[in-house]
Amino acid sequence: MKKVNKGKTIEAFLKENEQKELLRFSSAGSVDDGKSTMLGHLLHDAKGVYEDQLASIKNASKQMAKGEIDYALFTDGLKAEREQGITIDVAYRYFSTPKRKFIVADTPGHEQYTRNMATGASTAQLAVILIDARLGVLTQSKRHLFISSLMGIPHIIVAVNKMDLVDYSEEVFAKIKKDFSAFARKLNIKDLRFVPISALVGDNVAARDKEHMTWYEGESLLELLENVYIGSDRNMVDLRYPVQYVLRPNLNFRGFCGQVASGVIKVGDEVMALPSGKRSHVKAIVTMDGDLDHAIPGQSVTVTLEDEIDISRGDMLVRPNNLPQTDRHIEATLIWMSEQPMDPNGSYFIKQTTMTSRCRLEKLRYRIDVNTLHREKADHLELNEIGRVSIVSNRKLMFDPFEQNRATGSFILIDAITNNTVAAGMIIRRESADDTPELNGKTTDERLRRHPDAVGTAERSERLGQIAQTIWVTGLVASGKSDLAYALEKEIFEKGGLAYVLDGEDMRLGLCRDLDFTACDKAEHIRRVAEAAKLLNEAGVTAICAFVSPFRKARAQAAEIIGKDRFKEVYVKASLEYCAKHDDKGLYKGAEEGGVKGLAGVNAPYEAPAAPWETFEPENEGKEACAFRIFEKLRKEGKL
Amino acid sequence: MEDRLTHLQELESESIHIIREVAAEFANPVMLYSIGKDSSVMVRLAQKAFYPAPIPFPLLHVDTNFKFHDMYAFRDKFCKDIGAELRIYRNEEAIAAGTNPFDLGTQKCCSLLKTQALVDAIRIGKYDAAFGGARRDEEKSRAKERIFSFRDEIGQWEPKNQRPELWNLYNAKINKGESIRVFPLSNWTELDVWQYIYKENIPIVPMYFAKEREMVVRDDMLIPLDGPIPLKKGEKPEKVMCRFRTLGCYPCTGAIRSTAKTVPEIIEEMMVVTISERSTRIIDHDTEGSMEIKKREGYF
C-alpha cells in the first residue's frame, strides 16, 4: 500500500477525510481592510492554492506592475474587477484542513454591495468581519455586523487586521473589542469573538503568533474556524419537509422528494400534509443507497406514506402537534437587490421553500438606515436598502419566523416582468410587540412627532364631566352589535354624557374605503378604527365601536392602540340561528349555499373574548336593558 | 446514522436538491454530458435524485468530433448501462468544413465546435435549462458564477448582471428563448469529486488512470496521438507512463507523467503534486482571462 505523510495509508487517509465536516462562512471587509490578503493567506496556508494558479498569478501581478506576490490576487476573480482593483461580486472559495472543508463566500464590503454581502451571508454558518486596527470600528464594520445578524448567521469572528501597523498594541485591540461589543449588544448575535491578526505577515491567521502578541491567549483565525461548534445551530425539533418533487414511476410507488428543512423525519412518524391538513404515517425513507430509518436537516431524500393523500410540490410535511404558521399575509424584513427600485404596485412572485406564488407588497412600514439602524419613513426601497414590509401572497404560505428557522423563514421576490430576483426577505414573528401595527407610525422622523397639547385630556374630561372610554362591541354578523351600540349612545347622551358610534358601514364608506376584504386589509381596517377611537377619546368623547373583529389578536392590538385602561370589550353572545334569522343581507344563506366566503363563525373563524368586560345576550334581554347596565357600570367606575 | 452529515453528504444533498429543483421548475431540461469524471458524478447524482424512477431528462453530448476513441467508447457503454437517453449534437457544418485547431487556432476552433455548437444545440432542442458539471474551484471566473446561471437568447453570460442567489431559493423564471445553465457541482472541489468517485465506485474513462501511452513531448506538455497531429521538426512519439487529469479534444488535451493506476493513487498524487486541473487543457493558456471571455460567449 502506498504511504502518505505520517505513514498513513492513502485508504486510511481517505476514510478519515470522508468524515470531514463542512463549514460555510462569509467574509466581509472593505477594500482596504486586507480581506483578500487574509483569505489568500488562509488558502495558501491550507495548501488550497495550486501551483499553476500561483504561476498565472505571478503573470497577472507583473502585468499590473505590483511587484511581489499579492495574496489578494488569489481571490479577486473577474477581469473587470482586476482592472478596477476591487472585488465586486460574491466569489466562492474552497479550502480544507484535516478537520473541516470550508466554503468561503468572499463578499465585498463597500456600501453599494449590501446585496452581495447578503447573498454571501445567506448560506453562511459563520461570518468573518475584518476591521482595520488603525481605523477602529467604522460605520461600515457596523453595517457588516448588522447584515450578518439580519441574515441570521449564528457565529461571528471579528478579525482585527493590520496589528503590525499599530505595533501589536493590546490597547488598540481591547478598544476595538469594547466598541464593537457595545454595538453588537443592540443586535441579536449568539456568538461573537475577536482575534488580532496581521494578514500581510500572517500573524494569527493560520498559525498562532507567539512573537508579537504574547498578550493574546486565544486561538488563531484558522483554529477558530476549525473548532467553532456548529452542531447545535441546526433546528432538530420542528419537522419541516417541503415537498419538492413528486415521483410516480409506477402505480405502486408514490414518493415525495425533498430536503429536510428542519427537524427529523422518521419511519412510522405521524405526519400532516399542509395546507390540506390530511394525516398519514411515514412508510419509508427511500434513497438509492438503501432505505433510511430517519433523515436529518439538510438531507435530500424521498418519503413514501402509508395512505394515498394528495400532495404536490409546494406542500409541506410536518408533525400534527408542531405546525408552522399558515397565512397569506407575512411581515418581513426585505433587502432590495435590484437596480430597479421597489414598485409598491408592482407585480412580484414570492418563492419560499418550494412554493412560488404571486404576491402583493401590501405596505412598506419603514426603511432601516443600515448605518444608524434608525427607522425612516419611506414609500419605496432602492437597491441595497432594507425595510420592513407587509406582503400578501395569492397562495397560502407555510412558514416560521426566520429567527427560529432560516429554511422556512426566508424567501426571495422575483419581478414578474423582468424575471429578476429583486429582493431577499426574512419573515418576522408577528406576535412580537415590536411588530404590531400600532407601531407603524413610529418613526424617528421629527416632523411626525405630535404637537404638544395646549389643552390636556384631563381638562377636557372636566369640561365634559366624563372620562372618555372606548366600548368595543364584538360579535357575529347580525348578532345585534349596532343595535346595542346606538342604544348605548342614546342612553349616555340623554343622561348628559357624550358618546359616538363607529360602525362598519361608516368606516367602509369613508376612512377605510381603500381597503379590501383580504386578511391584511381587515387587520388594517381594525387598526384604523382603533386609531379613530383613540382620537375621539383624546377629544374627550366616548367611542362605541361595533365591529365583528373576529380575531383575539386584532382586538388586543386595538386595545394596545387605544390604551388598555380605557378599552372595554363587550361581547354580543348570540347563536348562529339567531344571527341568521336577523341577517337582512342574506349572508348566512349565501354562506350555506357556498357563494359567501369568510363569514365569521360559519366558514371563517370567530374567536370569542375569553373574559369580556360585559356580555350582551340578545336572545335573553333587550338592548335597552343592556345599554342601561353598561351605563351604570361606567358610572360606578367613575367614568361618567 | 449519526446526527450530522459529512461534507460529502452535504454536497450530495445540495446537488440532488438543485437537480430536483430544475426538474420541477423547467419544461424541457437537459443534462450536458461531457464524458469526463465530473459528468460521471453529475449523472450519478441525477440517478440518486429520482431513484427509483429513471432520470426524467435526456443527456446531451456536444461532440466536436475530436474526442478520444476511449471517450466515445465509454460514453456509449455508460449511457447504455444506466439506461439514460443520450442525445448527440455536432456542428456538422463546421466539421464538414474541416474545422481544426491546427489551422484555425484553439480559440476559433473551440468557438465553432464547442461554444457555437452548444448554443445551437440548446436553441434547436428548445431546452430551457441545461445542467453542466462545472465547479467553482476550477478557475477564477467560475468562482463567481451562480448555480442557476441565466443566459439570454443568444446564450451569453453577463457577469456584471447576475441574478442574486440566496439560500437554496433558485430563480427559475425565464422568458421564451432564454435559458438557465445549472451547475449542481458548483461547491465541489476536485478532491471532493475524486473522493466521491472512490466512495461510490463510479465508472470513469480509463484515460484517467496511468499507463504507457504514445506521446509527443512539447514544452513540458505531453501531447497524445489519438488522431492526426501535425508534428514539429524533430518531434517523434515516445512511450510515456502518463495519465490525463482532464479530458477534452485530443489535439488540445495534454497528459501528465504519472504512475497513479487507481483512484486512491490519483488522490494521493493530487495531494502531493498540486497542479490545477484545467492547466492541462491547452485552451486556457491563450490569453489572460480567456475562460471568462469564452463564458460570456456561451461556453460552459
* Strand percent estimate of chain A: 25-35%
Helicity level of chain A: 25-40%
Oligomer: heterodimer
Order of neighbouring strands in the sheet with most strands of chain B: 3-2-1-4-6-5
Q: What is the percentage of strand-forming residues of chain B?
A: 15-25%
Radius of gyration of chain B, rounded? 19 Å
Question: How many β-strand stretches of chain A?
Answer: 27
Q: What is the averaged pLDDT score of chain B?
A: 87
Any descriptors?
heterodimer; A: 640 residues; seven-stranded antiparallel β-sheet; 17 helices; disordered N terminus; B: 300 residues; six-stranded mixed β-sheet; 35% helix
Describe the structure.
The complex is a heterodimer of chains A (640) and B (300). Chain A is of the alpha/beta class. Chain A is 27% helix and 27% strand. In chain A, strands 7-15-11-12-14-9-8 form a seven-stranded antiparallel β-sheet, with no helix packed on it. Chain A has a six-stranded mixed β-sheet with strand order 2-3-1-4-5-6, with helices on both faces. Chain A has a six-stranded antiparallel beta barrel with strand order 16-20-18-17-21-22. In chain A, a hairpin with a 2-residue loop joins strand 17 and strand 18 (355-368). Residues 1-7, 48-55, 57-68 and 432-449 of chain A have low confidence and may be disordered. Chain B has 300 residues and is an alpha/beta fold. Helices cover 35% and strands 15% of the residues of chain B. In chain B, the strands form two sheets. A six-stranded mixed β-sheet of chain B has the order 3-2-1-4-6-5. In chain B, strands 8-7-9-10 form a four-stranded antiparallel β-sheet, with no helix packed on it. In chain B, a hairpin with a 2-residue loop joins strand 7 and strand 8 (221-224). In chain B, helix 1 crosses helix 2 and helix 7 runs antiparallel to helix 8 (263-272). Residues 283-288 of chain B have low confidence and may be disordered. Chains A and B meet through helix 1, helix 3, helix 4, strand 2 and strand 3 of A and helix 1, helix 2, helix 7 and helix 8 of B.
